[in-house]
Design a protein that fits this description.
Helix content: 25-40%
Number of strands: 6
Radius of gyration: 20 Å
Number of helices: 3
Strand content: 15-25%
Strand order of the largest sheet: 1-2-3-4-6-5
Shape: globular
Largest sheet: 6 strands, antiparallel
Length: 221
C-alpha cells in the first residue's frame, strides 16, 4: 500500500509539473504569435481555430441556477477537447496590398505524433497509435493566402488533417497550392527555431523572401 501511495504521489507530481511546463510553453507561443503579427504588418485582431478535436461547446442548461457553469461536458467527449494548444491555428485576418488581398495564419502543432504516425489509420483517441515522442516534432506552419477578392473563405485545399499530415511527413520545408479560394504558401518551421529573437527574426526574413519570390509582396515593409 505504501508503494502504491508513493507511485500515486509521483504521478500527480509529474502532472502538476506538466501543467506548469505547458503554461510556460503556451506563454511563449502567445508572445511569438503577437511578435509575428507585428513583424508581418497585420493590424487585425487574432482569431483562433482549434484543430485535431472539437472545442468545448457552450451550454445554457444552467443559465438560471448557475450561469457560470456554461461549458457542456458530456459522456463520450474526448480528453483532447480540453487541450486547445495541442494543434492551434492563429489567424491574422486580411490585408489589401495593391490589387491583391493577403491573409495569414500561424498553425502550431505542439506534438506531431498523430500526424507523423506511419500507421495506415492512426486513432486520435489511442496515443499508442501515434509516432513515438522521439520521432515526433513540435512545429509551426506559416501560412499565407493570396487572392483577388476580399472576404474570401480561408480554408486549406484538401482537408485540414490531410494537409497537416502531408506537411509533417514531408522532408520539404515549403508547400504551395491553389484552389478557387486563392493561392496558399506554407513554410514549415521547427519550434526550436522560434524560441529566441535572433532565430525568430531569421525565420521571418526567410518567410518574407519566400513570399516575395512567389507573390511579389514584401511582408515586412
Amino acid at each position: 500500500m505504501e508503494n502504491l501511495d508513493k507511485q500515486a504521489d509521483a504521478l500527480f507530481s509529474d502532472i502538476r509539473t506538466a501543467y506548469r511546463l505547458i503554461y510556460e510553453y503556451q506563454k511563449r507561443v502567445l508572445d511569438l504569435v503577437f511578435y509575428l503579427r507585428a513583424k508581418f504588418n497585420f493590424p487585425n485582431r487574432i482569431g483562433g481555430f482549434k484543430h485535431f478535436s472539437r472545442p468545448i461547446p457552450a451550454t445554457r442548461a444552467y443559465s438560471t441556477e448557475y450561469k457560470d457553469a456554461n461549458l457542456d461536458i458530456f459522456k463520450g467527449m474526448w480528453a483532447w477537447d480540453f487541450l486547445y494548444s495541442y494543434a492551434m491555428e492563429y489567424y491574422f485576418g486580411e490585408k489589401p496590398v495593391g490589387k491583391k488581398v493577403y491573409s495569414m495564419s500561424v498553425l502550431v502543432i505542439s506534438d506531431s505524433g498523430f500526424f507523423s504516425s506511419r500507421q495506415q489509420a492512426p486513432d486520435k483517441r489511442n496515443i499508442h497509435s501515434f509516432a513515438s515522442v522521439e520521432d515526433s516534432e513540435t512545429l509551426a506552419f506559416l501560412i499565407l493566402k493570396s487572392t483577388n477578392k476580399k472576404n474570401g473563405e480561408y480554408q486549406f485545399w484538401n482537408t485540414e488533417d490531410e494537409n497537416i499530415r502531408e506537411w509533417c511527413l514531408s522532408s520539404k520545408q515549403h508547400f504551395e497550392a491553389e484552389n478557387d479560394q486563392g493561392v496558399f504558401l506554407v513554410m514549415k518551421v521547427p519550434m526550436q527555431k522560434l524560441m529566441d529573437k535572433t532565430n525568430t527574426d531569421a525565420v521571418i526574413a526567410e518567410f518574407a523572401d519566400y513570399v516575395k519570390e512567389h507573390s511579389g509582396i514584401n511582408l515586412t515593409e
